[in-house]
Design brief:
By secondary structure, the protein is of the alpha+beta class. Among the domains are: 27-64; 66-109, Roll (SH3 type barrels), CATH 2.30.30.30. The chain contains 2 helices and 5 strands. The chain has helices at residues 3-15, 28-63, and strands spanning 70-73, 78-85, 88-94, 97-102, 106-109.
Amino acid sequence: MSAPLEIAWFFAALLAEDAPAQPGQTPFFYQLLFPLGLLAIFYFVVILPAKRGEERTRQSLLSSLKKGDKVLTNGGLYGTVVQVQDSVVTLQVDEGVRMKFALSAMQTVVDDSAPAVPAKT
């Protein structure tokens, strides 16, 4: 028997009500409804709004990139924005070295006023 067919048989047996439930005993499927409902509520109340907030923050970061900003890419490369065109950002990573990146590859704008973290020895 193939795996999808076995899974289908499992769920069919789970949902089937061959034997009547004993008095005071609820079917297994109904017992799953409450925890699944709680998970759905948790997702829509806690996780989804946080995700949307992060998306808005990222979109505002990407739309506010301008020439002279110091950025960190997703690949860990630091550079200074030289040019922003549509979805392409040109970074200067060293004297005379310019590289082009997708706008979506920008992770964060680096703040120069923040103190550098000393390396552990």
